[in-house]
Design goal:
Blueprint lengths: L18 E2 L10 E8 L3 H12 L4 E4 L6 H5 L3 E3 L5 H5 L6 H12 L5 H20 L8 E5 L9 E3 L8 H4 L6 E3 L15 H13 L3 E3 L2 E8 L5 E8 L5 H19 L7 H22 L1 E13 L8 H7 L7 E2 L8 H8 L4 E2 L4 E3 L7 H4 L2 E3 L13 H11 L5 E5 H10 L7 H13 L2 E3 L2 H8 L3 H13 L24 E5 L10 E4 L2 E2 L7 E3 L5 E7 L16 H18 L3
Parallel strand pairs: 1-9, 2-3, 2-11, 3-8, 5-6, 11-22, 12-19
Antiparallel strand pairs: 4-7, 6-7, 9-10, 10-11, 13-20, 14-19, 15-16, 16-18, 17-18, 21-22
Length: 571
Amino acid sequence: MQTQNPTDPHWYSNVEAPYEVSDAAALKWDMECDVVIVGFGGAGVAAGLQAVELGLSAIALDRFHGGGATEASGGVLYAGGGTVIQKDANVEDSTEEMFRYLRLEVGDIVSEDNLRHFCEQSPETVDWLIGHGAKFKGVHYPKKTSYPGVEYFLYHSDNSLIAPYKDEAKPAARGHRTFVSPEEGIRATSLGGPIYRPLRQSFLDRGGSVREQSEARQLVVDKAGEILGVKTLEFPAGAPEAEQHKNLLAKASAIQAKWLPIIPGSAFFLKRAERMIAKARALENNFRVERFYRAHKGVVLAAGGFVFNRSMLKHYAPKFADTFPLGTTADQGDGIRLGQTVGGAVGNMDRASAWRFINPPIAWSQGIVVNEAGERFINESSYGAAIGTSIALDQNGRAWSILDQTLVRESLSQIKGGKVLPFQRDLARLNFWFAAKKASTVEALASKIGVNASGLAKTVERYNSGQNAAQSDAFAKSNDDIRQLTTPPFYGIDIGLSAKLFPCPTITLGGLRVEENTGAVLNDAGRPIGGLYAAGRTAIGICSWNYLSGLSIADCIYSGRRAARSIASGP
């Protein structure tokens, strides 16, 4: 994909062309250090902490207050190869089995050498995190689930338990969920703090500096194009507008987190949040000033993806335009755009991960998922991102879950009494009660939901006859996961990307191309841009083809540390 620049009509960013000076001495720098990090979420904090551990001075710049999508996430780290947590839970794993499995998911997005190194580093990564205060626990959930109950902290956050994956690599639970008490953890968001916050504190304890409410707008370069540092817009020190800005965005974020679009009456509160954000933007426009940060050894771009930049998403990944953005409002693509202004090449910008989780309740995944033709297109036991991404890329964003009366009753039973997390229970109930269509025959149901009647009838007939050990399912679904659809009424639930009562969370996966051994940003000719690095979702990485729960955070930690190590060992 050819590099764009700020003059392009589809730039969709406040990032500006590089700030050029004759040489470094020609500019009055506000602060100087070895490494400047743009974005202070998972990748940024890993880069910063690794840098100061190696004796470098580092300043982190964050548009808001740090943490990013990592802190806002479900707090899952994908790790394996025999981590201390796996050993504590008596889960057998090896780096070779982890590599063989991930090779099936990752495809060719990174080289085999890079993927193998990621796997080999995995146990040490967990040790490093724990050494800095991150908390995990070896309480193992052995079955398939999108997210375990609050009492479990190690689970299969991938497709490893289903065919063909389990036939190619020995399954092992690799989803390391951060340890929080049940009282704290009755949710699946904002649980990344036990990873991010200890690393941040370690960074500060070792002399690192964080500049919050600091928006990176330009890379500073000399006449030869050498990366010198970063220009930001910030509130003056001690300005009352900074506190006003912080409070407005905090209140708006709290409203948006509580009043999802599917909740009745949410429009009123969401408009209130929009007004708060508009006031915060006005403060930015009227009271911020320029600041210049000198990076003597390198700049690391770690500002996340671009899923909250809806114009950018529609331009690059239009098939995901109807999905629900997952992350934080800082995911505007600024890090990617900064890299592009100095010739950085991008890739996979049309690739995102849409999450359509239908288990729990497990009975839901024992039915079928069909497209407009009434045909199945995937193993319903698959990891939710595999289902959602297939719906987006291959099914015009449309799909339905088909169940019969028996499965509906079992589903409702499976979400009672605290057996699942509240968000899993509430989404299932909401869709059963208000979104499900039902009919006494499969053909009549097809008419109600708008799919091909003969196609759906043939699909159900074929599915029912397939629950036989002598026959194999067309999508390698095991007999244990197949339940015949024979008890009327039959139910159809819209699970398409634009389903009104079933938001489909999405993150972007594309970003700047980097040299795999160093994390240095590459230009269109495939040559590294001296002094510029990228990490996390700002860059192409391990999870830039297929996402698995915890793989993005794992890649953030891995790629952030990689960039810092490269800078420390540089010329």
